[in-house]
Specification:
By secondary structure, the chain is an alpha+beta fold. It is built from eight helices and 13 strands. It has a five-stranded mixed sheet. It starts with 16 loop residues before the first helix and ends with a helix. The N terminus is likely disordered.
Length: 296
Amino acid sequence: VDRPWSQYFCCVIVGRRDFVRKNPVATKRALRAILKGADLCGLEPERAARSLVAKGFTQSYDYAAQTMKDLPYGKWREYDPEDTVRFYALRLHEVAVEQRMEQALDSIQAVVCTGEPGASMPAVRDQIETRWGARCLDHAGASEVGSFAYPCATDGGLHLFEDEFICEILDPATGEPVPEGTAGELVMTALARTGFPAIRYRTGDVVVNTQERCPAGHEDRWLPGGIVGRTDDMAIIRGMNVYPSAVEEAVRRVSGSGEFRITFYSEPSGMDEIKLEVELEEGKAARELQDTMRKQ
């Protein structure tokens, strides 16, 4: 946390959407092979170098071995897992408590969250407001189109800037409008951009299609639940769409819940499964969470 950008390491794997959807098993195998290869380069650079020479990619074993050792393939192993937190506002408060700096937060009156669905989720928003003693507001936008929604200060959720955007909620797979009450991808067409037009831009944000109007009387279209997830976060488990943010919401509703981990995995039979591990204060909370998850 709070390291210079030059000290962060990432890997981007790109695939054609139609291929990934038609060949999920092949895609998983390719990803596993890439991850295994990265591990091999980081943990056994000499073996990786011998493979490069044997397959004709280079003639110099010494050069290949030194290159494998110099590249930071295993750098991520040195980092603390807590650096990869889902909701920065909650983690920031935890660090303040650990450093005995809570008083430095006393003057904070509002926490504006962006880039994650946390502030749109009631249970997470309540925790942020309780810990910070401040109002928690959501902000939605994208670099490609700018800010496209603002928080409803009266009734929660988000209002879309309909005077600046044509907003559609579509099925990510078919591109067709989803029925009322159904979650879909928010697609935006910016009306005021000339130098960099954005026509039917797929934000990747998942919202629920509703015609419900804001009780406070705001005219812009209202999304009571705000942004509920991301299309690239979604997993299909036994025919059901599962969003990690929805699991997070269920966890945060349980009193005394701490850190948690969600693991998506495949059984040898090919069946996709999900495992949830949560730090809880007592057994009663575990049963409460089990009941909540069964109703999801």
